[in-house]
Every structure is written in C-alpha cells, then in structure tokens.
Specification:
The structure is a single chain. Mean pLDDT is 86; it is low at 25-37. This protein has helices at residues 2-33, 74-81, 84-87, 164-171; strands at 45-48, 57-62, 65-71, 91-93, 96-102, 113-115, 120-123, 128-130, 136-138, 150-153, 156-159. Helix content is 30%, strand content 27%. The protein is built from 4 helices and 11 strands. Strands 2-3-5-4 form a 4-stranded antiparallel beta sheet, with no helix packed on it. A 4-stranded antiparallel beta sheet has the order 6-7-8-9, with no helix packed on it. A 3-stranded antiparallel beta sheet has the order 1-11-10. It is α+β, with helices and mostly antiparallel strands and 176 residues long. The radius of gyration is 24 Å and the shape is globular. It has 2 domains: 1-34; 41-171, Rieske [2Fe-2S] iron-sulphur domain (Rieske Iron-sulfur Protein, 3-layer Sandwich), CATH 2.102.10.10. It binds FE2/S2 (inorganic) cluster. FE2/S2 (inorganic) cluster binds at residues 105, 107-108, 110, 123, 125-126, 128, 140-141.
Length: 176
C-alpha cells in the first residue's frame, strides 16, 4: 500500500516535470517560428541602416529570400564612382552608401559568397563573379544581382515597398 502510494507520488512528480518540459519546448518551438522583430506584416521588412559596418556583408531576409546588405567603405565608394554602372546601383541613406540586393546568383540561383579582402562576390557553383556593387565581372551570370523593391524612410530601408529611388532603377534598367 505504502509502496503503491509512493509509486503514485513518483508518477505524478515525473508527469509534472515532463509537462513543464513539454511546455518549455513548445514555447521554444513557437519562438523559432515567430518572425524576427524586423519583419512586419504584409511582406515588408524594415532595416535600420545605421547599424551596418563598412565592407561587412549582412544577409537579411525578405519574403523567404536572402537579401545582401553591404555598406560601402570610402575606398569602395571611390571605386564605384569610377564606373557609372556601379554608382547607379548604390542606395544612399544619410551619408552612407549601400548595395542591397537579392543574394541569389542570376545564373542558376546559388548563393554567392562575399570576399571582403577583394571586395567582390564569387559564386562557387560555376565560377561567376560580381564586384562590390554586385555587377557581373565574370560570366556565366547574365546580369548583376537583382535589387529588391525598397523605399528609404529616414534611416530605415523598407524592403517590399517601391519608393522613388527604386522606381527610377527599374525605369533605367539598373535592375529587372
Ligand atoms: Fe552562380 Fe552558376 S549559379 S555561376
């Protein structure tokens, strides 16, 4: 009898611990499903552009796609200024210049890697290369990395909304 009630107590205690564990793991699972704080409803992602460092590639996410954000260093900006095709791809927010593009190779969709030492992108799948503004420097990619719709709002960049700067890029063929 005593044994039975002891077993009953142990069973309840174990059940309680397991229950707490299950709730905790459900909570953790739900947290990992929740969108990041920067992701808003209706497919927009707002990026605070004041937090990026020169020549450090950051991969953000928008509508399930990787979005490369690369703040240009003064040296990179000088290089871009030498080529109008590079310069027109840059997005200016405050005093800083960025390339913001979809991080999928325009050849067959691999994710190119950024090389800060040479300030360029290499797509390991077939050896395609892009410069620091993600313009093609070596085939087979047919064009530079695409620029997603964006709108500048103060220090923020809203991905998914087509602002004037983006519309101009579309009109002039800077991006598809
Ligand atoms: Fe990038 Fe082919 S997918 S070079």
């Amino acid at each position: 009898m005593e044994n039975n009630s002891r077993r009953g107590f142990m069973g309840k205690a174990f059940g309680a611990v397991a229950g707490v564990g299950a709730v905790a793991s459900l909570y953790a699972m739900k947290k990992s499903w929740d969108p990041l704080p920067s992701v808003k409803a209706a497919g927009f992602t707002t990026l605070d552009m004041s937090g990026y460092e020169d020549n450090v590639l950051v991969t953000e996410k928008w509508r399930g796609k990787p979005i490369f954000v690369l703040k240009q260093s003064p040296k990179m900006l000088e290089k871009a200024k030498a080529n109008p095709k590079d310069l027109e791809r840059l997005i200016q927010v405050g005093d800083s210049h960025f390339i913001v593009c979809v991080g999928l190779c325009t050849h067959l969709g691999c994710i190119p890697g950024y090389r800060p030492e040479t300030e360029d992108f290499l797509c390991a799948c077939h050896g395609g290369m892009y410069d620091g503004t993600a313009l093609v420097t070596k085939a087979p990619p047919p064009r530079g990395l695409d620029i997603p719709p964006f709108k500048i709002d103060g220090n923020n960049l809203i991905l998914g909304e087509a602002g004037d700067e983006y519309k101009k890029m579309k009109e002039t063929g800077v991006t598809l």
